[in-house]
Design a protein that fits this description.
By secondary structure, this protein is α+β, with helices and mostly antiparallel strands. The chain has two helices and six strands, in the order E-E-E-H-E-H-E-E. It has helices at 45-63, 83-93, and strands at 2-4, 19-22, 25-28, 70-77, 100-105, 115-122. A six-stranded mixed β-sheet has the order 1-2-3-6-4-5, with helices on one face. The chain is globular.
Length: 124
């Protein structure tokens, strides 16, 4: 196993890594809309979802993977009424390649984020 850490994404806010590579697979920790400096993105669900994807791209790159090699994404949203807006942004990043996905509404996310996404990807 190899722990992934990059300064291009927010540092872990607990006893975990940004992701782990095992046998050519990358498992990300859930990414919330924190900036690299660790502050929550101000704005609506779309703004927060874009920041989550910036964070995912950074950890994927550090792992030797990319959005094009994502196998499975899990999306956690605070309010299912935001599904269409999250889906619109999600489609900007996964427009040709469409990995398997789950999306669930949760009662609360870390730092009261509106969205969190984790992925599993093939390492190139």
């Amino acid at each position: 196993m190899k722990a992934i850490q990059t300064n291009q994404a927010p540092a872990a806010i607990g006893p975990y890594s940004q992701g782990i590579v095992v046998n050519n697979l990358f498992y990300s920790s859930g990414q919330i809309p924190l900036t690299v400096e660790g502050t929550m993105v101000a704005g609506d669900i779309k703004d927060q979802t874009h920041q989550v994807f910036q964070n995912l791209q950074a950890v994927l790159s550090e792992a030797g993977a990319s959005l094009e090699t994502v196998i499975k994404a899990t999306v956690f949203i605070k309010d299912m009424n935001d599904f269409a807006a999250v889906n619109e942004v999600y489609g900007e990043y996964f427009n040709v390649h469409k990995p398997a996905r789950s999306c669930v509404e949760v009662a609360r996310l870390p730092k009261d984020a509106l969205v969190e996404i984790e992925v599993v990807a093939l390492v190139k």
